[in-house]
Specification:
This protein is an alpha/beta fold. It has helices spanning 12-19, 21-33, 55-68, 112-127, 141-144, 154-164, 182-188; strands spanning 2-9, 38-41, 51-53, 72-81, 88-100, 103-107, 133-139, 173-179. The protein has a six-stranded mixed sheet with strand order 1-8-7-6-5-4, with helices on both faces. Strands 2-3 form a two-stranded antiparallel sheet.
Length: 192
């Protein structure tokens, strides 16, 4: 895969460039290693029988590559209670795909609400002193058009962050938009 756009919120990209140069190199290396393949036969009306990029396969490759570089999942488990209520929910948690040295990384091929929720998780872990910055790796619009419906695209996320100004998230974030590598796709694309 390849990076097609980067957006730095509150200095997220600059923090990595200056203080976590190896993490920055890791991120670019992992993105380059991941091969987007059209392995999912669409059953959707608007994309009937088209071969689409498979998010599950790409996520698996991201996980293997980041884990090979020493990144791990971050999970905070807690019990939920609310004021003036006896209700108690144990076993609730917040989870981040990858973390190393307080640098959080989420790879999101889901609906837009999940992209935005990732920002809330970055804020949560930042407030808990478990994060210095968050990195959100998401498909660009062009890649999203070649995936199942329901997958969102990074341009929408950047657009919304810009309009929220500095109010949310109040944590440094680096948003990276990715696309399929055209040269790799020439050999990987399959037809039904």
């Amino acid at each position: 895969m390849k990076v097609v756009y980067e957006y730095s919120h509150l200095g997220g990209a600059e923090i990595l460039q200056i203080h976590y140069a190896q993490h920055r190199r890791d991120i670019f290396e992992v993105i380059t290693e991941v091969q987007a393949r059209r392995t999912k036969a669409s059953k959707e009306k608007t994309k009937q029988n088209q071969m689409l990029y498979a998010p599950i396969e790409m996520n698996k490759q991201f996980r293997e590559s980041f884990y090979a570089r020493g990144y791990r999942e971050l999970r905070d488990t807690y019990t939920i209670t609310v004021p003036n209520s006896t209700a108690s929910v144990s076993g609730a948690f917040k989870q981040i795909d990858f973390v190393k040295d307080h640098v959080l990384i989420e790879v999101q091929f889901g609906k837009y609400a999940f992209m935005f929720y990732d920002l809330a998780k970055f804020q949560y872990f930042f407030n808990e002193n478990k994060a210095i910055a968050g990195i959100e790796i998401v498909p660009c619009h062009r890649l999203q058009q070649q995936m199942s419906s329901g997958v969102s695209y990074g341009e929408q996320l950047v657009y919304d962050i810009e309009r929220l100004k500095r109010h949310f998230p109040a944590v440094p974030v680096w948003v990276i938009l990715i696309d399929a590598d055209e040269t790799a796709n020439a050999t990987n694309d399959q037809t039904p």
